[in-house]
Amino acid sequence: MAVATRLICPSAELSDGGPGVRFTVNRHGIEQPAFAVRFQGLVFAYLNRCAHIAVELDWQRNEFFDDSKVYLICATHGALYSPENGRCLGGRCNGRGLTPLPVEELDGAIYFTPHEQTP
């Protein structure tokens, strides 16, 4: 069974280290918050859920990067994550990382590209 690709936003809405774009994904029949950001020219997307406890990361709506614009940060716990792979780099996440989501940038737009095995 194929899963439909879905538009997240125009490419121009994401700048390196800038605000992200929130969207939702259906996991196990439940709509869950997610976000996409641009880092070093590439787009990455994750469930909007800290690995330590299920709280959303953004410290203000669509703000996921720390002050250095190098790390994603949990506003509640201060846990730091790699924007490239969601890996925990420090804080209460205890080695657990963010849940990545498949995205693709094509023809000036960012798409969520789920497949049957998407977590």
Question: Can you walk through the features of this model?
Answer:
- There is one protein chain.
- The protein is mainly beta and 119 residues long.
- It has one domain: Rieske [2Fe-2S] iron-sulphur domain (Rieske Iron-sulfur Protein), CATH 2.102.10.10.
- It is 0% helix and 38% strand.
Q: Characteristics of this structure?
A:
iron-sulfur, 10 strands, single chain, 0% helix, globular, 119 residues, Rieske Iron-sulfur Protein, 38% strand, three-stranded antiparallel sheet, mainly beta, metal ion binding, four-stranded antiparallel sheet
Layout of helices and strands, plus pairs?
Blueprint: E1 6-10, E2 21-27, E3 30-39, E4 42-47, E5 72-73, E6 80-81, E7 88-90, E8 100-101, E9 103-106, E10 109-112
Antiparallel strand pairs: 1-10, 2-3, 3-4, 4-8, 5-6, 6-7, 9-10
Keywords: 2Fe-2S, Iron, Iron-sulfur, Metal-binding
Domain Rieske: 6-112
GO molecular function: 2 iron, 2 sulfur cluster binding; metal ion binding
Compact description:
Helices cover 0% and strands 38% of the residues.
- Unreliable parts: none
CATH architecture descriptor name: 3-layer Sandwich
Number of domains: 1
CATH topology: Rieske Iron-sulfur Protein
Q: Termini distance?
A: 16 Å
Q: What proportion strand? A: 35-45%
Strand and helix order: EEEEEEEEEE
Task: Specify the structural class.
Answer: mainly beta
The CATH homologous superfamily is called: Rieske [2Fe-2S] iron-sulphur domain
Supply the CATH class: Mainly Beta
Spatial order of the strands in the main sheet?
2-3-4-8
Envelope shape: globular
Helical coverage, percent range: under 10%
DSSP summary, beta strand count: 10
Mean pLDDT: 91
Rg on CA atoms, Å: 14 Å
Largest sheet: 4 strands, antiparallel
* Number of distinct helices: 0
GO molecular function, one term: metal ion binding
Protein name: Rieske 2Fe-2S domain-containing protein
Pfam families: Rieske
Organism: Candidatus Accumulibacter affinis
